[in-house]
Each structure stands twice: as C-alpha cells, then as structure tokens.
Amino acid sequence: MFLRVIEGFIRVVIVNGAVVLMMVVMDALIVLQLVDERDRVRDRRQAALHGETIQGQAQ
C-alpha cells in the first residue's frame, strides 16, 4: 500500500517535470524568435540610416 503511494507520487513528479520542461523549451523558442525579429528590425533601421537596402545597394 505504502509502496503504491510512493510509486504514484513519483509518477506525478515525473509527469509534472516533463510538462515544466516542455514549457521551458517553448518559452525559450519564443524568446529566440523575438530576439531574432528585434535584430532584423535593428538591421533594417541601421540600413535606412545609412541610405541602403538590406542587400547593401545604395539608393
């Protein structure tokens, strides 16, 4: 009886740990996507300040 309670508790901990790990991975992917988008916008602004397109051609 006591062993089944411990086994059930361990299963709950493992499942919750897996769910938390998946949430952390998803959050990390979202952050990476946002940082990439921020860098692209910054690059566009820098190019516009220098009067260039992203390809480096003068306008």
Q: Overview of this structure, please?
A:
With 59 residues, the chain is mainly alpha-helical. The protein contains one helix and no strands. The chain has a domain of 28 residues. The relative contact order is 0.07. Keywords: Membrane, Transmembrane, Transmembrane helix.
Please specify the SSE layout and strand pairing.
Layout: H1 2-49
Distance between the termini: 78 Å
Name the overall outline: rod-shaped
Query: In this structure, how is the largest beta sheet organized?
Result: none
**Beta-strand content bin:** under 5%
Classify the secondary structure makeup into a structural class.
mainly alpha
Give the topology string: H per helix, E per strand: H
Low-confidence stretches: none
Q: What is the overall pLDDT average?
A: 88
Helix content: over 70%
Radius of gyration: 24 Å
* Total count of strands: 0
| Number of helical elements | 1
